[in-house]
Amino acid sequence: MVPEKDIDYGSREIPTWIEDATDAILLQLMNFPPDAETTANRLIQPYLHYIDANGEYRERPYDLFTGECDVVDTLHRKARDHGLCLDSSAYDGMIIGAPGSIPFRVRRLEEIRSDKRRGIVFGAAVGDALGVPYEFLKRDTFECAGMSEGGVHGKPAGTFSDDTSLLLATCASLKERGKVDVEDMRRRFCYWLYEGAYTSDGSAFDVGNATATALERGRGCDEERSNGNGSLMRIAPLVFVHASDDEVRAVSAITHAHWISTEACVMFVRILGNLMDGECLEDAIARNMPGSERFAFLRDLADMPRDAVKSSGFVLDTLGAALWCALHTRSFSDCVLAAVNLGDDSDTTGCVAGALAGAMYGYESIPAEWVDALRGRELIEQCLF
User: Fold this and answer.
1) Could you tell me if 62 and 134 lie in one domain?
2) Which of 28, 74, 276, 377 has the fewest CB atoms within 10 Å, i.e. is most exposed?
3) For 343, left (φ over 0), alpha (ψ -120 to 50), or beta?
4) 147-159 pLDDT, tens per residue?
5) Cα–Cα distance, 294 to 320 (Å, whole number)
6) How far is CA 193 from the centre of its chain?
7) Do 170 and 28 have their domain in common?
8) Contact at 8 Å (CB) between 383 and 122?
9) What range defines the domain where residue 74 resides?
10) Digit-coded pLDDT (tens) for 252-262
11) What burial letters (b/e) apply to 46-63, b meaning 16+ CB within 10 Å?
12) Under 8 Å CB-to-CB from 120, ≥6 apart: which residues?
């Protein structure tokens, strides 16, 4: 075999033969069985040899540095352009070789986004319900391993709190109105507070002080001491309608109007959007970091020890704790259990971490026994869109 010459791979321009080969491969992938797995290396094999103009049998250079990465990157780009995703998430965290040898399944992007939408909502509800029995308990004085009853509220296993109720009210408003309607959301929040709507028991419990005050007086609390996590815990559904930053701020400000709370919500919704698009969490955090030094500690989460993670009801503590759990675990269940076991505001930390993990791993990653144990599951289904 005669090696192909005259190609400058150092330029990082994609060689013509790779562009042509991946066009042909993409046609195969568009009709690929949904449950079948393959690899880029396997697909590219028929295109690695050719007969040149002189009738000589030639071999194209193909290894990690002269082709493999280009093929993988080009396939991912072209697949996304056609509404497809080459999903290798089942092998995340596994060291199995170079990029071209990592198995993937072909999935439609809308299918993945739909799974992640369900994952965000059910993930938040599951994380919330796991944390309810342990709210206000100190770290390392308990161990949550699954759904349980009891706690300060004395609720049956699988009961979600105000966190999920207000998230569902937000979902229902977006579903019915088809847009961000702040006044409609405010009305639904009041319906929850005074009539027990969006609850599994018919009555609201564990109501935050700022939330109750804001709904009673008809405007959000904008004092610095009113930076609890009461808007962060319910803001996730805004990612489903591609809400603008100002719309996110306005929805936060229904109850929590101080800039720390509104910017925390903006950052969280942006990160969820990046995760739904397949971006890694580390990049999403870096991309969406606010300029204020109040948020600077989030840059250090990857190296932060567990003992330094705060899990109080302060909005930045909750955001930081949830992101820390998502960064330091590799599955939905590990993420939400790590969040709940931080203690203190365990239900809200679990709720926010559950939304993050749902965006990262999807609905199918949530243990079925936890979903089945949720009280009010039918209500969640009604509010989804």
Assistant:
1) no
2) 28
3) left
4) 999 999 999 999 9
5) 11
6) 28
7) no
8) no
9) 2-103
10) 999 999 999 99
11) ebbeeeeeeeeeeebebe
12) 236, 237, 239, 272, 355, 358, 359
